[in-house]
Amino acid sequence: MTDRPRKYQHHPTAFKRQVVEASLVPGTSVAALALEYGINANQIWAWRKLYNEGRLNMAAQPLLAVDVVDVEPKSPGTSPAGQFEITIGSARLRVSGTVDPLMLKTAIAALRA
Fold first, then answer.
1. pLDDT-based confidence at residue 64 (cuts at 50, 70, 90)
2. DSSP per-residue letters across 83-107
3. Three-state DSSP class for 13?
4. What is the DSSP string of 17-86?
């Protein structure tokens, strides 16, 4: 047996959506579809999970509208008290009160993971 490096294929999002949508047709066999497209059936199941989570959108990740204003925080490392909500895919983060910017950045990164 020869040791050769594994080659990873990078499929375009449109291709992934096409395969997933074909797999969602009633009566379709994921195994047969995998053979037809030359990919592993487990890959289709992984793409289906992403699809169901809304992470195989054709458009790029949505941008958040941000207004930058000068406000003096009440104490170092915090922002003024308020309330807002961030939605990324099917995850939602609701924040109220005084916000630590580092904690907010960590929470958003966890939502995207």
1. low
2. EEEEEETTEEEEEEEEE-HHHHHHH
3. helix
4. HHHHHHHTSTT--HHHHHHHHTS-HHHHHHHHHHHHTT---SSPPPPPP--------SSTT-EEEEEEEE
Residue type, 100: D
pTM of model > 0.90: no
pLDDT average, residue stretch 95-112: 76
Q: For the residues 39-59, what does the mean pLDDT come to?
A: 89
Domain spans of the chain?
Answer: 13-52, 63-113
DSSP 8-state secondary structure symbol assigned to residue 9: P
